[in-house]
Design goal:
This protein has 416 residues and is α/β, with parallel strands linked by helices. The protein folds into two domains: 298 residues, Radical SAM ThiC family, central domain (TIM Barrel, Alpha-Beta Barrel), CATH 3.20.20.540; 63 residues, no CATH class. It is built from 19 helices and ten strands. The strands form two sheets. An eight-stranded parallel barrel has the order 3-4-5-6-7-8-9-10, surrounded by seven helices. It has a two-stranded antiparallel sheet with strand order 1-2. Strand 3, helix 4 and strand 4 form a beta-alpha-beta unit. Helix 16 packs antiparallel against helix 17. The longest helix is centred in the middle third of the chain and has 19 residues. The mean pLDDT is 95. It binds iron/sulfur cluster. Iron/sulfur cluster binds next to helix 19.
Length: 416
C-alpha cells in the first residue's frame, strides 16, 4: 500500500492487472484506497492474487485437522485437490496435531495465498491469554502466512449488544466463541481489539493481510441481521480505517445464515460501513434445513451476495454442520462455490464482459453439438465427460432427446 501511495506500480500489482484485464494505474488506485487487496507475505513467492472491486470474485477453501482427525497428510491432499479444482486461496483451520508442521507443510507445498486463524493455535491447550494470542499471530506471520482472520469485532461493546438482542444460536464462529470466552472469564477486553496498533505493527512487518472476522455472524435464519451483527461491522469499519492509515491491507468477513431477501441490503450496508473494503463471505446460507446440501444453500446466497458486491466466497461443503469434510466433499464444495462466483461475475462491473465470453463459448459449442468443445468449456471437464459417456451410447446428440434433439431440428430448419 505504501509503494502504490507513492505512485509506484509494484510487480505484484502489474501481474494482477494483467491477469484480470484491468489497467495497472486503475488497480494501483484501488489498492491504494484499500478497495483491493493482494495478500502476499513478504516471505512467500506465489502468484499474486487480487481480491476486491472490478476483479473476478475469488474462492477460498478451508481445510484443517481437528482433535478427532489429526492427519496432516490428508489435509494437505485436500488442499492440493481444492487448488486443482480451482480454489484461489486456502485457509488452514487446523486444531488437532502439530499445527506448526501442518501450516509449514502447506506453505511449502502450495503457490496460492494461505490464510490462518491464529486464535485457534493460541487456544489449543485451553489456556487462552493475550500473550499466546500475539505469539500465535507473530509466529504464523513469520512462517509466511499471507492473510489471517482476527475476530476484533467480538469485544465488550458488541457483546453488550448481543445481551440486549438475544439469539436462538448465540455465537457460532469458533474464533468468536473463543474470544467471547476470554472476555467473559477474564473481564478483559479482546486483546486483538484492545491492542490493534500492535496487530498492525506485526502485520506491517510481515506484509500480512488482515481479514477482520465476523465473530458475531448469525448461525441460523432466525438470528440474521440483528443489532449485534451491525455493531460489529460499525467497529470493523473503524478498524479498516486505522489499518489503511497504517498501510496494512485489510478485508472484512461477513455473515453467515441469512434469508435471501436480506442479503443485498446486508452486503451493501457492510460495504458502506467499511468504506468498500474487500468483503469475504461464508455463504450466506439461505436456509437452515438442508444438511448434506449446504454447499448449495451457500452457493445460492453467494450469487446474490456477489451481485451485491461481495468479492471473495468461502467454499461450503456437503459436510457443513455434520462432519469434517472428506477430499470429495472439498472438491464438490470448490466447484459449486466457483459456479456461484462465476454466476455473480456475469453481472459484476469490470468483469462481466470476460465472464460472459466463457458462457458464449459453451453456447456455441452446444449449438454445434461439439462435445469436445463443450467439455473444454465446462467448469469440471472430468465430470461432464464422465456423464456424457456413462451409458456407452455414442450418438451425435445426447440421450436426453436422441433423434428428437431440438438443437439439431432447429439447426436443420435454419439451413432450409
Ligand atoms: S438431445 Fe436434447 S438435451 Fe441433448 S443436446 Fe439435443 S436438445 Fe440438448
Amino acid at each position: 500500500m505504501e509503494e502504490v501511495s507513492r505512485g509506484r506500480i509494484p510487480e505484484a500489482v502489474a501481474i494482477v492487472a494483467k491477469r484480470e484485464g484491468i489497467k495497472p494505474a486503475k488497480l494501483t488506485k484501488l489498492v491504494s484506497a484499500g478497495r483491493v487487496v493482494i495478500p502476499m507475505n513478504a516471505r512467500r513467492e506465489i502468484r499474486p492474487l487480487g481480491i476486491g472491486e472490478f476483479l473476478t470474485t475469488k474462492v477460498n477453501v478451508n481445510i484443517g485437522t481437528s482433535k478427532a482427525f489429526e492427519s496432516s497428510e490428508s489435509e494437505n491432499g485436500k488442499a492440493q485437490a481444492a487448488v486443482e479444482a480451482g480454489s484461489d486461496t486456502i485457509m488452514d483451520l487446523s486444531t488437532g496435531g502439530d499445527l506448526d508442521l501442518i501450516r509449514r507443510n502447506l506453505l511449502a507445498a502450495l503457490k496460492v495465498p494461505i490464510g490462518t486463524v491464529p486464535i485457534y493455535q493460541a487456544a489449543i491447550n485451553g489456556d487462552l491469554s493475550s500473550e499466546r494470542m500475539f505469539n500465535a499471530l507473530e509466529n504464523q506471520a513469520k512462517d509466511g502466512v499471507d492473510f489471517v482472520t482476527i475476530h476484533v469485532g467480538v469485544n465488550k461493546n458488541s457483546l453488550e449488544r448481543l445481551k440486549y438482542s438475544p439469539r436462538i444460536m448465540g455465537i457460532v464462529s469458533r474464533g468468536g466463541s473463543l474470544t467471547m470466552k476470554y472476555i467473559v472469564e477474564t473481564d478483559q477486553e479482546n486483546p486483538y481489539y484492545d491492542e490493534f496498533d500492535y496487530v498492525l505493527e506485526i502485520a506491517k512487518e510481515h506484509e500480512l493481510t488482515l481479514s477482520l472476522g465476523d465473530g458475531l455472524r448469525p448461525g441460523c435464519i432466525e438470528d440474521a441481521s440483528d443489532r449485534a451483527k451491525y455493531m460489529e461491522f460499525i467497529m470493523l469499519g473503524e478498524l479498516v480505517q486505522k489499518a489503511r492509515q497504517a498501510g496494512v491491507q485489510t478485508m472484512v468477513e461477513g455473515p453467515g445464515h441469512m434469508p435471501a431477501n436480506d442479503i443485498e441490503t446486508s452486503v451493501r450496508a457492510i460495504k458502506h460501513l467499511t468504506d468498500g473494503a474487500p468483503l469475504y463471505l461464508l455463504g450466506p446460507l439461505v436456509t437452515d434445513i438442508a444438511p448434506g446440501y449446504d454447499h448449495i444453500t451457500a452457493a445460492i446466497g453467494g450469487v446474490i451476495a456477489g451481485m451485491a458486491g461481495a468479492d471473495f466466497l468461502c467454499a461450503t461443503t456437503p459436510s457443513e454442520h455434520l462432519d469434517l469434510p472428506t477430499r470429495e466433499d472439498v472438491i464438490e464444495g470448490t466447484y459449486v462455490t466457483r459456479i456461484a462466483a462465476h454466476a455473480a461475475d456475469l453481472n459484476k462491473m469490470g468483469v462481466k464482459k470476460r465472464a460472459r465470453e466463457w458462457d458464449l463459448e459453451m453456447a456455441k459449442a452446444r449449438v454445434d453439438l461439439d462435445w469436445e468443445r463443450q467439455f473444454r468449456a465446462a467448469i469440471n471437464q472430468r465430470l461432464a465427460r464422465q456423464i456424457r459417456h456413462r451409458r456407452g451410447v455414442e450418438i451425435d446428440t445426447c440421450t436426453m432427446c436422441s433423434d428428437l434433439c431440438a438443437i439439431r431440428i432447429g439447426r436443420e430448419l435454419v439451413k432450409k
